[in-house]
Specification:
Blueprint lengths: L6 E5 L4 H10 L5 E5 L3 H10 L5 E5 L13 E4 L18 E4 L8 H4 L6 E3 L1 E5 L19 H11 L14 H14 L2 E7 L2 E2 L17
Parallel strand pairs: 1-2, 1-4, 2-3, 4-5, 5-6
Antiparallel strand pairs: 7-8, 8-9
Amino acid sequence: KDPAKSCVTILGATGVVGVYCLQALKDKLGKVNLLSSNYKRIKDFLAAKNHKAKIKPYELTDKPDYIAESDLVLVGNGKYAPLINISKLKKGTVIFDGTYPKSFKDQDYTLRNDILFIDGGAILPPGKPDFHFSFGFPKSLAFPCMAETMILTFEEMFESYSLGRSIDFTKAMTMDELAKKHGFKLAGFSFKGKVLDKPVPNVQYAWINSRL
């Protein structure tokens, strides 16, 4: 799908995951729906007018009909997941669950076979290492959090880089640059601890320059 013609809904738009996704996507998408219990913070962001996408804020009292028009639904806070009526989503909708523990139950995943659930990604560190430990992924692949620890070690940055609920967006972009510098690549999206069988081809992400 063409991002410039697509609609994304971010549930929990002022949390750590939501803020990052909003900053990263606000100039790439045609329309962005935002939902957060901190409605004032959303309005303050919109007042800055530093975005290209058509952005619409929603309050918790609004009917969640806007979710059904989305091509991509980003769940940044699990308390908003019950607002998603899976049966009413468009065919081909992608749901990214950025929460932990995860927001959906096993039976939710079986309701539709024409939408895609994603809950993370698998990272390929440089050199195809043997960890002598199974993350549940194919050999040499690691979770993003493990990859971040490796990157910080390579840079001799022995610090708590991304702990807590308030992470500066610039730190996330810095990690992207450091990942590129050291040759880390996104090997594919994951779901329930397994790498998806059919990763999306010809898509570039921040520091990804090769086919997935």
